[in-house]
Structures are given as structure tokens and as C-alpha cells.
Amino acid sequence: MxxxxxxxxxxALSCIATGAYAADVAAGKAKVQKACADxxxxxxxxxxxxxxxxxxDKIAAVVAGTHHHPKKLQLSDADIDNIAAYVASxxx
Length: 92
What we know:
single chain; mainly alpha; Cytochrome Bc1 Complex, Chain D, domain 2; 4 helices; globular
């Protein structure tokens, strides 16, 4: 039992230290509706068929200012993960 508790603690601390957690699709949908939906429909181009990882990379580039986008986005890493998870979950 002690080994299980220690293992669980190590896994939990590893997730915290690396920022690994499950993205929140509902939070991603809410953020898309607030920050993106004026110009983008997640079921249409340029998002259609984009993997979660690729979507995350594209959004991160927009936030960093290294990808052209008409709107300056200020999103947290969690926001980016959540949006990417939501877009990937939309039935294309």
C-alpha cells in the first residue's frame, strides 16, 4: 500500500512539474465562442482536419506573434490546450 501511495504522489508531482493535465473541451468551446467565433467556425477551414497537436502549435504561434493573425490573442497555456482539444473534438 505504501508503494502505491508513493507511486501516486510521484505521478501527481510529475504532472504538476511538467504541466501535463487533461485539456478541458468545454472550457475550450467557451473560449472559442468568446475569442475566436467572430471570425472562425471550428468545423470549417482553416481548422478542419487539424490535429490537436497542430492546432495547439498554430494557436501558440499566434499568441507568440510568430504567425500572422489580424487579432492579438492573449491566451494562457491552459487556454491553448483547451481550445486545441475542443477543435479536435468537433465532428468534421
